[in-house]
Design goal:
393 residues, Aspartate Aminotransferase, domain 2, seven-stranded mixed sheet, four-stranded mixed sheet, 13 strands, 42% helix, 15% strand, binds pyridoxal-5'-phosphate
């Protein structure tokens, strides 16, 4: 055997996630592993719930991290809230709404699709039409921040509509949490899930979730058992619930939870509102540079996510070659377009720890150099200046 330890290259991660991890979080992760029922670990779990309640702006008692990535948080919401025979209205305006449909159908329910163009926000009028046409629907699901396109939808209005027609709501906040306002209690969201590797700047592999009292009631009153043993919240709460004596359900990912705890402490130190503002500020600087270069965005200004910028690819360059050169020569990762947007856009992430002035200027400089060297039809040499002008305003 000649295989030795793996040492990854040092990259700057400015794609759709994972995003750069704060070194404080990596340090927290390397602390000693203890037992998952150790009293000090249990105390850390209680703090974790409080920190997540802060991040989600909720008092929901059922707020905790699922021991698996964002996709598992998504599945946890669907398998617990949806029963066979249910009708679920799914708003789709990108890749992740399509996965919601899969989850609905695999839960034995019917998905009523409300479709919007990729790059658009979810249209509340279309949702209301679907609610009127399907009075027997039980649930509405939508993606708050579509990472595949960079569009943000008006969660408050969509949830209000769903409730007007007696539906509970499932909201994907994987990319919005920490980067844009997510007000779970004020907006009355029933079930919400997120991920650790986007605006929380943490390592991938955990999915914070939160459930309202109405959602908890539906879960407690199910007549059909949750199809997934691992994700059945009635069982998971034996470990994560407070009050009751904690019992073994699965071995918690101890060190990953240290990492999430640290990332939430960092978020609390900065302050949620300051974090939202920082994400917006760096987005506007990047935008100044991108537009000076002569490139555009696919999302309308009003619906643009600050943490995920879908930027049009200029004529005359090869998408994959540009991304390859950025990675090879600059150790810089940006994202490719997904699905219908493949080859049409790059997805430049400014998420969490990666959302900073240095990264914005670095990315614009590297992109400018690579595009110019490859003969891309852009305005060369002006992007960095446009961004610094923005910052000095
Ligand atoms: C990244 C992402 C997911 C999936 O999260 P994983 O951690 O990759 O499983 C789900 N929804 C949205 C909107 C995302 O951006």
């Amino acid at each position: 055997m000649s295989i030795s330890s793996f040492h990854p290259p040092e990259r700057t991660l400015m794609g759709p996630g994972p995003s750069d991890v704060n070194p404080r979080i990596l340090e927290a992760m390397s602390r000693p592993t203890i037992g998952h029922l150790d009293p000090s670990f249990v105390q850390m779990m209680e703090e974790m719930k409080e920190l997540l309640q802060y991040a989600f702006k909720t008092k929901n008692a059922l707020t905790m991290p699922v021991s698996a990535p964002g996709s598992a948080g998504m599945e946890t919401c669907f398998v617990n809230l949806v029963s066979p025979g249910d009708k679920v209205i799914v708003c789709q305006n990108g890749v992740f709404g399509g996965r919601m449909k899969e989850n609905v159908e695999r839960s034995g329910a019917t998905a009523i699709m409300v479709e919007d163009a990729w790059g658009d926000a979810v249209d509340a009028n279309k949702l209301e039409e679907a609610l009127k046409a399907n009075p027997d629907a039980s649930t509405v699901a939508f993606v708050h921040a579509e990472t595949s396109t960079g569009a943000i939808s008006d969660a408050k209005t969509l949830v209000e509509l769903a409730h007007k027609y007696d539906c509970l709501t499932i909201v994907d906040a994987v990319t919005s949490l920490g980067g844009s306002p997510v007000l779970v209690d004020e907006w009355n969201i029933d079930a919400i899930y997120s991920g650790t590797q986007k605006c929380l700047s943490c390592t991938p592999g955990l999915s914070p979730v939160s459930f309202s009292e109405a959602a908890q009631e539906r879960i407690a009153n199910r007549t059909h058992p949750v199809q997934s043993w691992f994700m059945d919240l009635n069982l998971v709460m034996g470990y994560w619930g407070s009050g009751a004596k904690r019992a073994y359900h699965h071995t918690a990912p101890i060190n990953s939870l240290y990492a999430l705890h640290e990332s939430l402490v960092i978020l609390q130190e900065e302050g949620l509102e300051n974090s939202w503002k920082r994400h917006m500020d760096n987005h506007l600087a990047l935008r100044a540079g991108v537009e000076a270069m002569g490139l555009g965005f696919i999302v309308n200004e009003a619906d643009r996510l600050p943490q995920l910028n879908a930027v049009t690819i200029p004529d005359g360059v090869d998408d994959a070659a540009v991304r390859g050169k950025l990675l090879q020569d600059y150790n810089l990762e940006i994202g490719a377009g997904l699905g219908a947007l493949g080859g049409k856009v790059w997805r430049i992430g400014l998420m969490g720890y990666a959302s900073n002035k240095t990264n914005v200027l670095f990315c614009l400089g590297a992109l400018d150099a690579v595009l110019t060297s490859m003969g891309g039809k852009i305005e060369s040499g002006v992007a960095v200046r446009a961004a610094t002008d923005y910052y000095s305003k």
